Amino acid sequence: MAHPLIRNNQHNIGHICTTQQCLEGRGANLAMRWVDSQGTRIDYSFEDLDRESNRFANLLSNLGFGSGDIFFTFLPKMPEQFFAFLGALKLQVICGTMFSNFGEEALLDRLGDSGAKGIITKTSLLKKLLPIRKRLPDLQYVIVVDGDDDPDLELLSYRRLLAEASPDFLTPLTQADTPSVLHYTSGSTGKPKGVLHRHGSVVLQSLTAREVLSLTHEDLFWCTADPGWVTGTSYGIIGPWSLGVPQLHYGGGYDAKVWMQLLEQEKVTVWYSAPTALRMLMREDTSIFASVKLSSLRHIFSVGEPLNPEVISWAQKVLNHEVYDTWFQTETGAIMISNRPGLKIRPGSMGKPVPGIQPAILDDTGKHQETGIQGNLCLKPDWPSMFVTYLNNEKKYQERFQHGFYHTGDTAVQDSDGYYWFMGRNDDIINTAGHLVGPFEVESALLEMEEIAESGVIGAPDELMFEKIVAFVALHPRYTPSPELELKIKLHVANKGSSTICPHEIIFCDSVPKNKSGKIMRRVLRAKYLGQDPGDISTMDF
Ligand code: ATP
Ligand code: MG
C-alpha cells in the first residue's frame, strides 16, 4: 500500500513540503517563524514557502539547470536558504548544503569533488569563494543573495533573477529513487564523504518526525541544527514540513539567554538540539533559568553525540523536562534508534529502534553478539532514507555493507530489554590492559565533577597496557589546575565507574576541539597528543 504522504506517486520532497500542504488546506497556516539575530520576526505560511520555492525552481530552470545537476547553498541560516533548497529539489536538482563558516579548502573539496554547477551565497562569503573559483571548472553560476550582477566577477544577482522567475511551477513527477540531498559528513574521523540521498527518504523523515519527535499541527518545533548537516535538513526542513508542522528558525548562534527567551516567548513546544549545546547551558549561571517558564514546551530531544546522564538529570532539575536521546548518521538520513515519549528513558542509552528498523550487534566476522556484549552497530538494509552512495566513491560505499548488514562504524551494546547503548566510534574505542573502554563513559564520569566544564578522552599507545586512557579536561573558570585536583579527578572516575576506566593521564586545556555540529574531535586530540598532523580539519569549529 502506498504511504499516505505519497499522493499520485509523487515523492518529490519540495512538492510534499510545500504544494501538497497547500492542496490539503494548510496553505494559510504558519510554516516558518523566522527570527533573525537582531530579534526581528517574520512569519511565512505554507503558501509563501510554496511560492518562493517555485520561484527558485524557475530561477534555476531559466539558467539551464535540470534533473541531476548539483547545486549548493553556502549561506548562514536564512529564509532564502530554505527556499533555495526546496526549489532546487522541486526541479530534481541535487541540493548540497554547506556551513557558512567553511573556509576555502573545505569549499574546494566539496565543490570540486561533486562537480557542482552552481551555488548561492552571500556577499560577505565571496572572499572565500572567489579565490578558488578558477580551480572549479564546473562551477558556472554563482548567485549572490544580497548582491548585484557583476559581469567582471561573473556574479549573478538573486534579486534580479528572482524578479524574472514565475511564481508558478509544476513539479515533475519524481520517483523515490531520484537523487535529492547531498551532505558531506562532518568529518569527525577523516576526510568528508559526499553522502547522497534520494527523494524517497521523505517517508522515514516524516514518520520519525511524527512517531519519535511526536509532532502535530498544533506544535511549534525548533531544531537548532544548521542545514549544513543532516539534522538541519532531515528535521530542520523535511520531516516537519512534510507533515505540515510549523517551525521556528533562528538566525543567531548559541546564546543561553536568547535561547531561553525564544523557548518561552515563542511558545516552542518541541525542541531538538545537541548534547554540546545542553552541556553549554549546564555551564551557565542558574539565574538564567530561574525566571523562564517553559510551560509550552512538551519535549526536548538531542542528537549528534552521546547524551551524558548528567545532562539528563540537569535538565530534569533545572528545565523541568526530560531529554530524549536520538541516534542517527548522515548515511541513515533519519533517526534509527531513540528514546521517545511513551518509552521509559534509560539515561546513557540511545533507546530502542524506530519501528521497521532492524539494528544488530555483530562481531568482526559477522556473528551476532549476545545481549550485554559490545560489537559493531549494524543495520539491516534497506530503509527508506538509506543513502544511495558516497559520491565518486562507490567502493567505500560497498565496503560499508558486509555480512548482509550496513556497518555504521559505531560500537554499541544491546541490553536484555532491547535498549541500545553507544560505546564509541570504532576508531575511538580504547583497548587498555585487556579492557575495551568507550571514551563516552569516561567523559560522562568526568562531567559529573563540578570543576569540569568539558572533557575529551582518547587512547594513546602504551608499552604495558597497549593503550592508556588520556583525558583532556577544561575547567570552569573559577578553578585552576593543580596536582591535587588531578588526583581528585582520578579518584572520582575510579569510584564512579571502575578502576579500568580511570584516566592514566590528565591534561588540562582551555577547551576541547569540536566540529561544527558540536562533536568532540578526538582525532584532533590524538594527533595533538602524539605530535602528529591532525589531517583534514575543515569542519573544526575554531
Ligand atoms: P565522519 O563519518 O566523516 O567521521 P560523522 O560520523 O561525525 O563524520 P555524522 O554523520 O554527522 O558525521 O555523525 C554521525 C555519528 O555521530 C554517529 O555515527 C555517531 O558516532 C554519532 N552520534 C550521532 N547521534 C548520536 C547519539 N545519540 N549518541 C551517540 N553518538 C551519536
Ligand atoms: Mg560517520
From TrEMBL:
<protein>
    <submittedName>
        <fullName>AMP-binding protein</fullName>
    </submittedName>
</protein>
<dbReference type="InterPro" id="IPR051087">
    <property type="entry name" value="Mitochondrial_ACSM"/>
</dbReference>
<dbReference type="InterPro" id="IPR000873">
    <property type="entry name" value="AMP-dep_synth/lig_dom"/>
</dbReference>
<comment type="similarity">
    <text>Belongs to the ATP-dependent AMP-binding enzyme family.</text>
</comment>
<dbReference type="GO" id="GO:0005524">
    <property type="term" value="F:ATP binding"/>
</dbReference>
<dbReference type="GO" id="GO:0004321">
    <property type="term" value="F:fatty-acyl-CoA synthase activity"/>
</dbReference>
<keyword id="KW-0547">Nucleotide-binding</keyword>
<keyword id="KW-0436">Ligase</keyword>
<dbReference type="InterPro" id="IPR045851">
    <property type="entry name" value="AMP-bd_C_sf"/>
</dbReference>
<dbReference type="InterPro" id="IPR020845">
    <property type="entry name" value="AMP-binding_CS"/>
</dbReference>
<keyword id="KW-0067">ATP-binding</keyword>
<feature type="domain" description="AMP-dependent synthetase/ligase">
    <location>
        <begin position="34"/>
        <end position="382"/>
    </location>
</feature>
<dbReference type="GO" id="GO:0006633">
    <property type="term" value="P:fatty acid biosynthetic process"/>
</dbReference>
<dbReference type="Pfam" id="PF13193">
    <property type="entry name" value="AMP-binding_C"/>
</dbReference>
<dbReference type="GO" id="GO:0015645">
    <property type="term" value="F:fatty acid ligase activity"/>
</dbReference>
<dbReference type="InterPro" id="IPR025110">
    <property type="entry name" value="AMP-bd_C"/>
</dbReference>
<dbReference type="GO" id="GO:0006637">
    <property type="term" value="P:acyl-CoA metabolic process"/>
</dbReference>
<dbReference type="Pfam" id="PF00501">
    <property type="entry name" value="AMP-binding"/>
</dbReference>
<dbReference type="InterPro" id="IPR042099">
    <property type="entry name" value="ANL_N_sf"/>
</dbReference>
<feature type="domain" description="AMP-binding enzyme C-terminal">
    <location>
        <begin position="441"/>
        <end position="519"/>
    </location>
</feature>
<dbReference type="GO" id="GO:0016405">
    <property type="term" value="F:CoA-ligase activity"/>
</dbReference>
